[in-house]
Amino acid sequence: xxxxxxxxSIVLFALFSFFILLKGLDKSNTYSPSIxxxxxxxxxxxxxxxxxxxxxxxxxxxxxxxxxxNIWASWCLPCKDEHxxxxxxxxxxxxxxxxxxxxxNENNAKQFLSELGNPYTKIITDPNGINSIELGAFGVPExxxxxxxxxxxxxxxxxxxxxxxxxxxxKIIQ
Amino acid sequence: xxxxxxxxxxYIALLIxxxxxxxxxxxxxxxxxxxxxxxxxxxxxxxxxxxxxxxxLIYAFVTSDFSNETVYNNSHTAKxxxxxxxxxxxxxxxxxxxxxxxxxxFLFLFVIDSKNLPQRYRTFTLFFQEIIIFGFLLFILFTxxxxxxxxxxxxxxxxxxxxxxxxxxxxxxxxxxxxYVGTSIIFSSALGAIISDSINKSWASHIKRWVLISxxxxxxxxxxxxxxxxYELGWGGFWFWDPVENVSLMPxxxxxxxxxxxxxxxxxxxxxxxxxxxxxxxxxxxMSGTFLxxxxxxxxxxxxxxxxxxxxxxxxxxxxxxxxxxFIYFFYQKTITVESTxxxxxxxxxxxxxxNLFMMFFLSVVxxxxxxxxxxxxxxxxxxxxxxxxxxxxxxxxxxxxxxxxAIGPNIKWIKDKMGKINLKDIFIFMxxxxxxxxxxxKFGVSYLLSLPLFIFSLFLFFVTIRDFFxxxxxxxxxxxxxxxxxLILSILLNGVLAKEHSSNMRVGDEIKFLDKIIQFQNIExxxxxxxxxxxxxxxxxxxxxxxxxxxxIRIYDQPQTITSEADISSTIFADNFLVFNIIKNDGxxxxxxxxxxxMIWIWISVLLISLGGILSLKKKNx
Amino acid sequence: MxxxxxxxxxxxxxxxxxxxxxxxxxxxxxxxSKNLRCLICxxxxxxxxxxxxxxxxxxxxxxxxxxxxxEEQIYxxxxxxxxxxxxxDPEINKNTLLLWVLPLILFVFGGILILRxxxxx
Lengths: 174, 623, 121
What we know:
The structure holds three protein chains of three kinds.
Chain A: H1 2-26, E1 45-47, E2 54-56, H2 57-60, E3 66-72, H3 77-93, E4 96-102, H4 106-116, E5 122-126, H5 130-135, E6 142-147, E7 152-158, H6 163-173
Parallel strand pairs in A: 3-4, 4-5
Antiparallel strand pairs in A: 1-2, 3-6, 6-7
Chain B: H1 2-27, H2 37-62, H3 69-74, H4 81-86, H5 92-113, H6 119-143, H7 167-195, H8 201-232, H9 243-268, H10 272-295, H11 308-332, H12 348-380, H13 388-408, H14 424-443, H15 451-468, H16 476-498, E1 500-506, E2 511-514, E3 517-528, E4 532-542, E5 547-550, E6 553-557, E7 562-566, E8 568-571, E9 575-583, E10 590-598, H17 600-622
Helix pairs in contact in B: 1-2, 1-6, 2-5, 5-6, 5-7, 6-7, 6-11, 7-8, 7-10, 8-9, 8-17, 9-10, 9-12, 10-11, 12-13, 13-15, 14-15, 15-16, 16-17
Chain C: H1 2-16, H2 22-34, H3 52-66, H4 71-82, H5 97-117
Helix pairs in contact in C: 2-3
């Protein structure tokens, strides 16, 4: 009798492990903390690009509507790919897009924008990457959609924007 | 064309496998069945087929045959010949083929080696091993075929990850696999033995050799991986509790426990069931390791694209084997002929059990630490990281009693020994250890909790194992292995406590003061090599008496484009001077990391000693 | 402007942390960064990694220490941004209780089995 209980419990445990591991295989390997948990205060100071003035990110978020924050750099190749989407978003919805220029050289950034166009309402700099960490970013490019009133991140894109994320974004904005 | 040869050989091997499985399972009914020469030649042909396909793959790599997808993805014409060859097993498909190669060769050797054992036992072992071979053949042919073709044929391959282009890492996989896959024979043999009711002393002395072989290869394989991580990854550490490392440590811990149990079974004919459980567990751990590493379930973000069907296949196969073994174990457990031997409290048998208890504890810490995040994520959707602090906190407190038992255990006699015979010498050694540790800890201001008892007991073990060299009641291989282990613990401890490091950003010409030394960054030389460009930095470490010149490199590989840093290490018997530098974005600056690692070389030597003990024990019994 | 900021910072450090030499802060940064996972690397700590993410992280830790945050506060700050995943030393809570306790239970269980197997007499 006790043998059977042992056998059954071992078999059940093995089955349990099997299904857990099987499910574990489906899990996406990219991880970002669920949005409601990332309490981000946009209350950090940063310098404008092409100017010596400083500003709190807070002040750049308007009172209504939404703001798109995009982390970019002229040396980052995927940023070039997603740039067209940012321009389209700008022209379509007249969206407030704030750029964070990540670990970049001002001249290169200038050239990048004059070649590809400037979708940003305002651009602030992040010379050593710590402002992006305040946002909970992993690197470049990353894009955040923020509801201005509640100051909450509604949507977060790690990596360059593409057709899929563009459609998602336009839907939410409209 | 040649490519297809490898593919067809694998199909032939698969057919042979099916045939043998059917043939042997038909012969189970008549217990007198003799392993016919017929089957033996089939096994030889099967091994030959797998060898041919493996050679075909090597050939494809050497000739850079880019019509082969595996070669295209992992090789490049500009790669040195040595790394073209090692590239064969430096990728998913090739490494599985290597798995299969070891599986079949070990089976072949087993059949030759087991001539004097009961036929029924041999047949069953053969049967189970063929099931494993069959599973791997299916896996290789249908989810990760190394002979897949691409058309049109690309003119150039994409290259081998430069971090893998390293002599230690080139031979690391084959050696590790010999150990890893060697456990398959132990698994099959344990199942064969339990069904044919032949778990006895002669089985133990037969299987002991296979346990030793796997154990020695696994030890050396882990050592090579560690050495590689030490100088190639540029972190200056040698063990990171990384899941991929843990996965090789788990079967090692289990094998070590099995080794001690099998010795006892051979001497005293006891602990039969336990030996079987350990044999099954060891191979299951090797398979789980393959699953965890190959399926990509453990990888963090920015992982390689992985084919999920592979993970599902190995997982199912792993659990099929686990269920088969659970049922066989429970069904046949009653039939194990138990020699009615008593285990007395003070006896070597108990000492072996205590060793096993600690091994199982360490194993459970590593296993739970490795898979817990997966379980938690699936059940609770919470993601956590488990790193070195966790393992240290759980393992170190238990290491202290473990070292104590390891010091006294080997001197206890079999069957029954007297309690109160603890001699004055032991107490004297213990006192000396306390005094030395106390002075040491005070002098160097070591302030970690538990460091004092840890020092006392590792020194105690160290002295006792040295003393034991002059005793008679322990065999030489055990003396060497145990001494090696005490040396390992002591060197790791000293290394951890006394290590010094300094990291800073420097330009050519800069000087930095660190402790009583001055680090000078003299110049950088750029040299073009066959498939990379290298920046050689020349550094001088100057202190009062002498000056040491170190030349670490930064290599910029073209195919695929990657930057690696090669540390320069100067080793003496007292300490390693380790220097590595990296490019950082700020113009002209390099991140320079200098470390003094005391007794580093003794960590490697001690693992070699541990393995040497195993090799000696292997030789002795063959005579 | 930037130079001014650094100077200001230096003055603050000098005033408030006179006994806190820079060698000690950098040791503190090392200690903390060893305990953090570099989220974009494969199995490396922030300390070990030279990636952009890790380099910024080290600067951030340095800044936080200069601002007077202690180790726990820095971990909390980062856990808030990136979740529990970033720290290597999981704290004991309802999610990780089993992780810490299970090996110990197994050890005790194994010990009992051995005691039952061994005859005392």
